[in-house]
Amino acid sequence: MRTVDELIAEGVAGRRVLLRADLNVPLDDSTGTPIITDDGRIRASLPTLQALREAGARVLVASHLGRPKGAPDPRYSLAPVAARLAELLGAPVPLAADVAGPDAQAKAGALTDGGVLMLENVRFEPAETSKDDEARGALADRLAALADLYVDDAFGAVHRRQASVYDVATRLPHAAGRLVTRELEVLDRLTQDPERPFVVVLGGSKVSDKLAVIEALLPKVDRLLVGGGMCFTFLAAQGHGVGGSLLEADQVETCRRLLDEAGDRIVLPVDVVCAEALVADVQVTVAMVEAIPESLKGLDVGPRTVELFSEVLAGAHTVFWNGPMGVFELAPFTAGTRGVALAVAAVDGLSVVGGGDSAAAVRQLGLDEDAYGHISTGGGASLEHLEGRELPGLAVLAD
Ligand code: ADP
Ligand code: MG
Catalytic residue at 156? Predict the structure, then answer.
């Protein structure tokens, strides 16, 4: 896989580089004006962007943001992202009014060496995420026509076969950005001979999303700690009532099999923080997992679980953590995620945090990012890579 630094060494001055970045940041639009609540992904894109600018490239940045329905929607405009990027770069970042239309063409033509242009949200084009190769190809043709070279630094999107990630790379000389290279290096250290004990902590909402990675990692880990909404399907598999907690009934059987096969390595919560509803001022109850009240939902792991998980983590030398332990977005349910985040930060060895929400949790809870070996920008991508699946956006860069 060619790297952006190799591309730069060959000379990029005056050339137009289409840089696919993952600037899909969380936005709060409760005030009517979207505000970026965590700019981690924008900051993670800076090393590649700066290297290209310093080498005199004319950079066109493409990204998606949120899930617009394949048409322009001002709520998902990249305008706030362009503004934040301009602040961080200390340089203007104009935003094209379209993705690869007349305005993008005009503004791309006006770029000077070292200049940066942001294209509008690629998902404003329905073809971006289309299953139809021809539709995606037509958009990729238009994107490719804007530039001479393509650099993919959107690690969070490399598991997607989408026009701006996959198809466009087949149409232009291409290279992997520094973020992509760094992410792969770190993830490979987890799967290739990790220093033991190797502990994986999984949380988040959907067990079905993460079963494949559980299956792939279980033979490799010394301990798998399961929290978050997904723990309830495992608890149900053990025969516990889970009240109104998240439960994926169709996955109970699989969880039961995993517990049969590797129950000695899977560590489940012993207590959970329960409440009637997901609101900030709700009254909470801590229940042991044997006694989750029928009328309540489990919304965080409890203090005894944090203690148990922290003990296991204290002995680990390699840790991968994906998925918050509870609904950390709401004050009564942050303690589990905070406790585990602190225990992961204290690990003597390599600690990797993967997943958009987990990374956002680390920053939102005001924890020290530098205490972690690596905070991955890609949730789905890091999980699929750990599963050993071929990721389309990476495979295409290797050709
Ligand atoms: P990541 O983005 O880090 O991969 P996920 O997207 O899998 O994480 O899951 C994050 C979401 O899981 C958060 O929005 C959080 O509120 C939710 N979550 C965690 N625990 C629970 C729970 N017990 N019940 C419902 N949702 C939960
Ligand atoms: Mg998520």
Answer: no
